[in-house]
Specification:
Strand order of the largest sheet: 5-4-3-6-2-1-7-8
Number of helices: 15
Radius of gyration: 30 Å
Strand content: 15-25%
Structural class: alpha+beta
CATH architecture of the largest domain: 2-Layer Sandwich
CATH superfamily of the largest domain: Histidine kinase-like ATPase, C-terminal domain
CATH topology of the largest domain: Heat Shock Protein 90
CATH class of the largest domain: Alpha Beta
Distance between the termini: 86 Å
Largest sheet: 8 strands, mixed
Number of domains: 3
Number of strands: 16
C-alpha cells in the first residue's frame, strides 16, 4: 500500500499502549451471559483433550464463586502465562483443525464478563504446576496489565480439586459482580437468583456441546454441580419419523448442510415433545443450527435473513457445520454466538430453508403426521372454509363436508335453523385467542396426549361407514383409508386411521 505521508528517513511511529484501567471496562462489555462465558472455557477444555469437565458453584454467604475444572493435558508455566495474555493468538494465524478458539481472548473476556478476580491453576503429567490470576481491581488501581502469580502452597483452598488429578486446568471466578438475573423475578433474593441461573447453564451446555456429549468414540462428560449433562439432540434423530432431507456440501466439503423435519406431535412421545422443544420452545428453536467443528454457535432462527419464525414451520431445523478456518467468512464473533453466511452461499441456504419450511408446514398441518396423498385441491373435505372478504379473512362452516352433511341429514333440521346455527358459530370464532394459543403451544388443537382426547365413538362409526362405502365401491383398503383420512375431522387424529386398519387386521 502506498503511504506518501511516511518518511523513510525518520521514525514515524511511537508506542501508544491502551490504558489498562480504561480498556478493562470495555473488555467486560462483550455481551456474554453466564452460559456463554462457561461454554467459552469448556472450549479450551475440549481442545486440551479433557474427557471430564466439572462446573461447580456456591453462594458462599454472599461471596459466590464459580469453578470450571477439567482433566485435560494442562499447561506449564510458560504456556499459562501466554494463555493469560490478552490477544494470546492472532485470529489470522493458522489453528489446529480441532481448535475451538480464534481470537486469543476467550478465557479472559469470558471470565472478565462475570468476575473481577480470575485464577487459573494448571498442571501437566509429571508435576509441572503453575498459577496465575487477573485481579481487575488491582489493574484498575495500578493502571497497568500486571498479571498476578502465587505458589501452590499459598493458593486458595478452592483450587485443591485439581490436586487429585494427574493433569488438568482449573479456572476459579471470585468477586462476582454480575450474577443478578434481571429476568428471573427474583431480584429480592440474590442467592435464589444466582442458583437459578445454573439450571439454565446446564440446559444450554447440553445444547451447545450435544455432539461432543453423544460421541461414543471420544466420550465427554460435563457436570454442572452434581447433575450430569445429557445431550440435547435438536433433530430427534432417535425418532423413526424424523425426516432427514437431502444433505449438501459446499466449499470443498468445508460446509455441510443437513435439513431435518421433525415428527408431528402425534408421532412423538410426551417426553420427546417436552425435550424436543429446547430451551426456547418449539417456535423459537426452528431454523438454522450453525456448528463450528461440532460446537454449536447458533441455535435456531434464520440468521440475518428476512425470514420470520412461524408456528407452522416449527418442525424445520437445519444443521450447518463449518470448519474453524471459516470464522472470518461467517463473521463468527468473540463470544461464538453469532454467525452470518458469506454472500456466495446465501442464495443456496435460503433455498434450502424454504424447501425445509415447506415440508415442515405440510407435516405440521396434517395433524396426524401423515401427508394427504389422495387429497385433491378442492375443499369439500374441510370443515372450515377460509374466505377473503375485502381486507378481512373470515371462516365459514362447510355444509358440503361429508361428515357435516351426514349429521344434518340425520337430524333433519329445517334449513333456516341450520343457517342460524352456522351464523352463530361463524360470527363467534375466537380468532385472537386461537392465534395466541398457537404461539404458546405447538398445535393448540392436539396439544393434549393422544390417549386423553381419543375420537368419540360416534365419529368412529361415521368414519367406518364412509370407509366401507368406498370399499364396497371397489376401492382397496389402502385407497379407502387414504380417502377417508383426508377428510376433516378424520385427519385430525391418528386414532381414525388406526381404527380402520384394525378392521382388516381383525378379519
Amino acid at each position: 500500500m502506498d503511504r506518501p505521508y511516511i518518511s523513510e528517513e525518520q521514525d514515524c511511529f511511537q508506542d501508544c499502549p491502551p490504558r489498562a484501567d480504561a480498556l478493562i471496562h470495555s473488555l467486560r462489555a462483550f455481551g456474554y451471559d453466564l452460559s456463554m462465558a462457561i461454554a467459552d472455557l469448556i472450549d479450551n477444555s475440549i481442545f486440551a483433550a479433557a474427557s471430564n469437565i466439572w462446573v461447580d458453584y456456591a453462594w458462599n454467604d454472599g461471596n459466590p464463586w464459580v469453578r470450571i475444572l477439567d482433566n485435560g493435558k494442562g499447561m506449564n508455566e510458560e504456556q499459562l502465562v501466554e494463555a493469560m495474555r490478552l490477544g494470546s493468538m492472532s485470529p489470522l494465524e493458522d489453528r489446529a483443525p480441532e481448535d475451538l478458539g480464534r481470537f486469543g481472548l476467550g478465557l479472559k473476556t469470558a471470565s472478565f464478563s462475570q468476575c473481577k478476580l480470575v485464577t487459573v491453576y494448571s498442571k501437566m503429567v509429571g508435576g509441572s504446576e503453575a498459577i496465575r490470576f487477573w485481579d481487575l481491581d488491582y489493574v484498575q488501581s495500578c493502571k497497568s496489565w500486571k498479571l498476578g502469580r502465587t505458589t501452590v502452597e499459598r493458593a486458595p483452598a478452592l483450587l485443591e480439586p485439581l490436586s487429585a488429578l494427574q493433569s488438568g486446568t482449573l479456572v476459579l471466578w471470585q468477586n462476582l459482580d454480575r450474577y443478578h438475573d434481571e429476568d428471573s423475578g427474583l431480584h429480592h433474593n440474590p442467592e435464589a437468583s444466582f442458583l437459578e441461573r445454573f439450571l439454565k447453564v446446564k440446559e444450554d451446555l447440553e445444547m451447545v456441546f450435544h455432539q461432543y456429549l453423544e460421541n461414543r468414540k471420544k466420550p465427554l462428560t460435563i457436570k454442572v454441580g452434581r447433575a450430569r449433562c445429557e445431550p440435547w439432540d435438536p433433530y430427534l434423530r432417535s425418532n423413526d419419523f424424523t425426516q432427514e432431507l437431502s444433505s449438501e456440501r459446499y466449499e470443498e466439503k468445508r460446509v455441510s448442510v443437513i435439513p431435518y423435519v421433525l415428527p408431528h406431535v402425534s408421532r412423538r412421545s410426551e417426553q420427546e415433545s417436552s425435550r424436543g422443544a429446547g430451551p426456547q420452545g418449539w417456535n423459537a428453536q426452528q431454523g438454522f443450527y450453525v456448528y463450528r467443528n461440532g460446537r454449536m454457535i447458533v441455535a435456531g432462527g434464520y440468521l440475518d435473513y428476512d425470514v420470520k419464525s412461524e408456528p407452522h414451520y416449527s418442525l424445520a431445523r437445519i444443521m450447518v457445520d463449518i470448519t474453524n478456518d471459516m470464522d472470518h467468512e461467517w463473521s463468527i464473533d468473540v463470544r461464538k454466538a453469532v454467525a452470518s453466511p458469506p454472500d456466495r452461499l446465501r442464495a443456496e441456504l435460503l433455498r434450502i430453508s424454504r424447501a425445509t419450511r415447506q415440508r415442515a408446514q405440510e407435516v405440521y398441518r396434517t395433524r396426524t403426521g401423515i401427508a394427504r396423498r389422495t387429497r385433491s385441491n378442492d375443499t369439500t373435505g374441510d370443515v372450515w372454509l377460509r374466505r377473503q372478504v375485502g381486507e378481512k379473512t373470515v371462516y365459514l362452516l362447510n355444509s358440503k363436508n361429508p361428515v357435516v352433511r351426514r349429521i344434518l341429514d340425520e337430524i333433519q333440521a329445517p334449513k333456516k335453523w341450520v343457517v342460524k346455527l352456522f351464523h352463530v358459530i361463524e360470527n363467534t370464532v375466537p380468532h385472537r385467542l386461537i392465534v395466541m394459543d398457537g404461539w404458546e403451544h405447538e398445535d393448540c388443537h392436539i396439544d393434549l396426549p393422544v390417549d386423553l382426547h381419543s375420537p368419540p365413538a360416534e365419529l368412529l362409526a361415521y368414519c367406518r361407514d364412509m370407509y366401507q362405502s368406498h370399499v364396497d365401491g371397489g376401492r382397496t383398503h389402502a385407497e379407502a383409508v387414504d380417502i377417508v383420512c383426508s377428510i376433516q375431522p378424520f385427519d385430525t387424529h391418528p386414532g381414525y386411521r388406526a381404527h380402520l386398519d384394525s378392521i382388516v387386521e381383525g378379519r
